[in-house]
Design a protein that fits this description.
Oligomer: single chain
Structural class: alpha/beta
CATH architecture of the largest domain: 3-Layer(aba) Sandwich
Largest sheet: 7 strands, mixed
Distance between the termini: 54 Å
Number of strands: 30
Strand content: 15-25%
Bound molecules: iron/sulfur cluster
Helix content: 25-40%
Amino acid sequence: MSDATETHCPYCALQCGMGLSPADGPVPVAVVERPGFPVNRGALCGKGANAAAVLAPGARLTTPLVRVGGALRPAGWDEALGRIAEALGATAAAHGRDAVGVFGGGGLTNEKAYLLGKFARVVLGTSAIDYNGRFCMSSAAAAGIRAFGLDRGLPFPLDDIPRAGCVVLVGANPAETMPPFVRYLRELRDNGGTLIVVDPRRTRTAELADLHLAPRPGTDLALALGLLHLVIADGRTDEAFIAERTTGWPETRAAAMAHWPEHVEAVTGVPLPRLRAAAGLFCAAPTAMVLTARGPEQQAKGTDTVNAWINLCLATGNAGRPYAGYGCLTGQGNGQGGREHGQKADQLPGYRKLDDPAARAHVAAVWGVDPGSLPGPGRSAYELLDSLGTEVRALLLMGSNPVVSAPGSTHIGSRLRALDFLAVSDVVLSETAELADVVLPVTQWAEETGTLTNLEGRVVLRRRAVDAPEGVRSDLEVLHALADRLGHGAGFPTDPEQAFEELRRASAGGPADYAGISYRRIAAEDGVFWPCPDEDHPGTPRLFLDRFATPDGRARFVPVQHRPPAEEPDEQYPVRLTTGRVLAQYQSGAQTRRVAALNAAAPGPYVELHPVLAERLGIVDGERVAVVSRRGRTVTPARLTTAIRPDTVFMPFHWPGEGNANRHTNPALDPVSRMPEFKACAVRLEPL
Ligand code: SF4
């Protein structure tokens, strides 16, 4: 691939390396293998292999749009930017600075996320900023900080996974969401290691497992407590590790011992012999890992649930040493970096806390402003969206599509419509952009350079491979132009490397320290793992080997108790609904639904249910059925499979309209992470 530009996939957090070669035709580049990049060694899934299709004219926006007389019409950049600046300024003047909101995305590059946070705090002076990554991994992040003092999705490189003796995947389906990752699981099995998958569905990933546990949605916490109970009862805890490297064990031990395995069997629906088998496999392995994804995390008790799994790792000595530990499989392309550099409601760059005076002073000095001028922490993503049209009157939204992806999406659509003013910066006319007063067409992955941080904490460099079409500008140019119109033009570079250099300084000394990472090093070293405090530092592929990032260097057990989902089945809504992704679509589908090959593979929504439930309800495979919850009604074809529990149905969430799964999902929030409960709610099915 000598003429190919080495870059990365636009989609998920694996950030597979790929090459882009010049091509003739409407799509200006072709995706080719990049076998030298270690994460995926050339392998790509269908989403990555077909990524170039979104570059084609017609698939994406190429001119700004402004709303006139109720309809969007093409406009020039001056008019579009002028309308946004005027509306944001007028809203702040009339209703106060916090009446202007900013909503970002977990797909934005580090440079964009950094400058978007700076734009909100310095130019707008608003606390009302958060991003859709809150819906992705915030519970795992909160749990990691509680236990280890630091959140990095995987505290070890992917290459460690095949060298663990046992891996437990909880609520993760990488065989569909990130297929090249499956290589690590196959190598684990080839090395004699065991794979346990915890999922209410027998997914493609579960098919690979030595043992599959299928708990009821929303009961993973009880399952983890039951496993810890069995480990303690069998005398398999690592007392030396607990004594030397942890705190809080007595309380956690007592909490686990109160969860009898028979009770756990009743709560989870997982038979006791399978619980015993899982505990046996986990303890028999010389080292073990637990990897969670959205299943246990997207719950109103997601943080406690993740801590329950971390407790299991700590009790068995599986943390802070090679080939062992807890990790989170982050979902969005820059879900990791996006939560480190300031677009989250409570954060400043470098994973600093907005309410920490020393952090405010450091970042304010880099920004050349008075620390006192920086606003305090704001609302979480759902709370911000829920306040639209009341407290927040004008919104700038960048790289997100909450009309499809937010929980209780009908309500969130109505809140977006209630705004005085909505501006959306996006590549395509998403369902959310269709509601905007101004839409800005921006460059995408292959048309711009920038860094992302993958699920391992490896900072990678996406390189520009083609020129953007005429009429399109970058998000960095948008922020610069808006800042300029609002009186702050300096400090918003349009060159991504210049933005990254400033990010390095802002992150220096923080938990996510990028000070030693440069574009040159990333290119030369296939990415650099943070923390990397100076240019001579090699980066940190493995965290916590000597000490955890807590004040005393010890990991913290967090005693947790099981509690049911916020919404349990009842007479009116007797079935559990859980949601997730399919192989050929990505998140809200804004890009992938525009790719013919992916639409052919996954053309639309459906509801998956067990034949036993279908027979009871008189539902036939392929027929359209209504799914009804307290929050809405959808109509979608039924898909019958024995791979799901008979008391549970599943809907993928990639589509808008009458099949939109998020019409049903419950915005009950986790008290720590403010994660909504996407993964468990109650519905009824009605044959049509
Ligand atoms: Fe892209 Fe993720 Fe597929 Fe890799 S696994 S090609 S990063 S979508």
